[in-house]
């Protein structure tokens, strides 16, 4: 074997090994409790940025008032799943009479939870336009209909927001099922 061929072979083997090491680290990181996606039984909390959290009660949510940004928390361990920004959700109370069927089946007592990550380029969807009854992303002005399962009403986003199916137990907002679709945007 020529020296050049030998060196190319070594480089390929090293690249494969490095890739496997990266994927192993990525898998390990994705299994950290704080980075895991919401699981049934998690409660929704408001985090203060210092690891302190307050559980959101359904009764504190007023009809069509600005959404609350929240993260899921494992109530048994206290782990807040804020290790991934894709776990950030918007929680809001809507009029159930105006909801489409998909929205109704994933909500509880008029309370909905949607991914707070825009499906266009991943900015935070952090505003509610009361007059239009729409969520709004300031980055590129995409708008989403919370009454129609997060449907896009104005682009450039083309995919609806992911919903987080919830239920209410003892006035707390609890995750009922995983996100209805992968939150965020496609790269």
TrEMBL record:
Cofactor: [2Fe-2S] cluster
Keywords: 2Fe-2S, Disulfide bond, Iron, Iron-sulfur, Metal-binding, Signal
Region (Disordered): 23-42
Keyword Iron-sulfur: yes
Residues in Rieske domain copies: 111-175
Superkingdom of the source species: Bacteria
InterPro entries tied to this protein: Rieske_2Fe-2S, Rieske_2Fe-2S_sf, Rieske_Fe-S_prot, Rieske_Fe-S_prot_C, TAT_signal_bac_arc
Record has Metal-binding as a keyword: yes
Stated name of the protein: Rieske (2Fe-2S) protein
């Amino acid at each position: 074997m020529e020296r050049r061929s030998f060196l190319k072979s070594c480089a390929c083997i090293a690249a494969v090994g490095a890739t496997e090491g990266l994927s192993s680290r990525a898998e390990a990181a994705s299994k950290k409790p704080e980075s895991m996606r919401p699981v049934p039984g998690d409660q929704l909390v408001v985090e203060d940025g210092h690891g302190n959290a307050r559980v959101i009660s359904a009764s504190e949510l007023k009809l069509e008032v600005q959404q609350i940004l929240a993260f899921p928390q494992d109530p048994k361990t206290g782990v807040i799943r804020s290790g991934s920004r894709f776990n950030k959700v918007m929680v809001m109370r809507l009029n159930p009479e105006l909801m489409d069927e998909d929205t109704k089946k994933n909500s509880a007592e008029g309370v909905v939870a949607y991914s707070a990550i825009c499906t266009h380029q991943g900015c935070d969807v952090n505003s509610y336009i009361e007059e239009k009854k729409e969520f709004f992303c300031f980055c590129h002005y995409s708008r989403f209909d919370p009454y129609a399962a997060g449907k896009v009403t104005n682009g450039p986003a083309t995919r609806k927001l992911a919903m987080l199916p919830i239920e209410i137990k003892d006035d707390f907002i609890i995750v009922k099922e995983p996100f209805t679709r992968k939150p965020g945007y496609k790269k």
